[in-house]
Design brief:
Blueprint (H helix, E strand, L loop, with lengths): L7 E2 L14 H62 L5 H11 L5 E7 L4 E4 L13 H7 L5 E6 L2 E7 L2 H51 L5 E2 L6 H81 L4 H28 L2 H5 L2 H13 L6 E8 L6 H22 L3 E9 L2 E8 L15 H11 L3 E7 L5 E8 L15
Main location: membrane
Enzyme class: transferase
Subcellular location: Membrane
Length: about 500
Amino acid sequence: MDSSSPASPLPIAPHGTATTADPPPVAIAGRSLRFRIHLLLVGLMGLFIVALLAQQIEATRTSVREEIIAGNRVAGQLLERVGWVYRLSGPGALLEFLNQLGRVRANEITLRSDAGQELYRSPPPVYKQGRAAPDWFAHWVAPPPQRQVIRLPGGQLVVEADPSRAILDGWDDLMRMATLGGAALVLINVLVFWYVGRTLRPFKTILAGLVRLERGDYAARLPALPGREAASIGNAVNRMAAAVDGQLQARLAAYEAQRTLAESREIARQIEHHTEHERREMARELHDELGQSVTAIRSVANSLVHRLGERDAAGREMAALISSEAARLYEVMHGLIPRLTPLALDSLGLADALADLVGGARQRPGSPQIDLNTQALPAGLDAELALAAYRVVQEALNNALRHSGAARIDIAASADDTGLQITVEDDGAGLPPDWQRPGHYGLRGLRERLRGLGGELQIEGLAAPRSGVRVSASLPLVGPPATPAERPRT
């Protein structure tokens, strides 16, 4: 992913990434949430309507019971008093009255003779004729049966309550309420379904953006979304994507820097191996070939000195000069070889090589007191590890001899389970203020060399009462393996 490319809004898919219509789970998730909200609303409204209808049924039941009981009682009392009036006139007058009265709305009136003959029955109801409420509803709201018998001379008048019309009125009211409630439920559900869908529509875009982020398109950004909540979520997602993208770019840059540093260290290590190899070859050539040649020249010159004797004073003087120059060349060569590579390290080990190095330093004119402690060094150290330790002591010792003006230099080398420790400490002038300026690559090169082996190098100035410099190095006993072709010969 190119971090320099501008962040793309969600509807635009950069370089093979998914668009908003790509992942089907987005639409499914949107419909699922919409369906759940809609189902919850339908359930709540359904419970409300059911409760309302139950309340209406209970109210109808109470109303019918009160109406029927009261109507039957009033009709019975009225007909009982009318029967007293018509008691002297006989059944004919009462029958004529009943025929004129007709049907009393909520009551069935029957006149029977003492012999059980039915003389009169109320006509059937004309109110909502031909209709009846369902049996379950009638059974639910019907009041207890109401029946009154009025005794008359020569017969009886029976007044029975008929709640069917009142129950039908209650049923019609219930159906009217249920119809209005159902229509309201449908209308509200349609409006809510539309509004919820409109509200949740931005979440499809949000989910699509999250899917793109999951697939690694961290440059994706959500467009401006309608609605306060959706806009807040979209802004949060964009901030998260920007933070993730920034951290990813930072980690990529850090990874590239680490990889470049590792490659540079590996190259430097290979160069160090090659340089040490070349130094070792040059030292061996100087020691074996040039050393033998110089020794041969000196032997021949000394032989000429003895043979010429007093016979040829000029030739004897020239031969002596040649022998002297050969001896000086031999000394210079032997002083140069340890600077190229410590040959004693191959055959004698680190302790003896350091002793040889310190011995040579002690022979310099005006050299300070140098103490060496290598009693805790084990035998058989890794050649590359031993060479790195030797170079640390060599560089620190040379710096102390050249620049510190120290009267005493302490060198200690030891090894334990944690690794190899080297310390070079002097009581000289201390570190100069500009010791870290560019151009001083000796100790810096050693630090990188030790880091390549898994070690560390520390340089610090000593505080009073003893001024000076302490160079400390630590190396693991098992370092990174060297290339066989570049491993120092033993």
